[in-house]
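Allow me, if you will, to draw on your knowledge of protein folds for a short while. The matter concerns a single protein, recorded as an amino acid sequence and a row of C-alpha cells. Kindly check, if you would, that the fold set down in the C-alpha cells agrees with what the sequence suggests. You will find the record immediately after this paragraph.
***
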Amino acid sequence: MAELLQVTAPLLIRYPDGSRHVMAERFAHPDGILYFQPFWHLCRPASQAIHLVRGELRGEGPWKLGDAVITVLGCQGTDPDMAAVHAEWQAFIRSGAPGYPGPDAIRALACQHGACQD
C-alpha cells in the first residue's frame, strides 16, 4: 500500500456503478484507504467528500481496492471531466488555497476517521 500512498501523480478512483472521484488527499486505513475529494473542506459536512474504501489493495498500478479501481488520472483527453476537476483543484492550491486546512489539521481529520493507527 505504501507505493500507492507515495504516488505524486493525480489518482482517480472508479466504482462499479460508474462514479469516479479524484483523490486529493489519501491515507492508509486499517480497512483500506481513506481519501478526500478535491474541495472537501467546502462541503457541509466535510464528511460528504471523505471516503473510506474497504478492501485489500492489489496490483501495482492500476490498483484494485475492494470493487473499486484506482488509476493515474490521464489529463490529456482520456477523462476530460475528471482532468478538469483536477486542474481546478491544482489552480486553487497554487493560488495559496485560502481556507484550506494545513497538513496537521488534515492528518488530524484523517485520524478522526480511523486512518491513524500508530
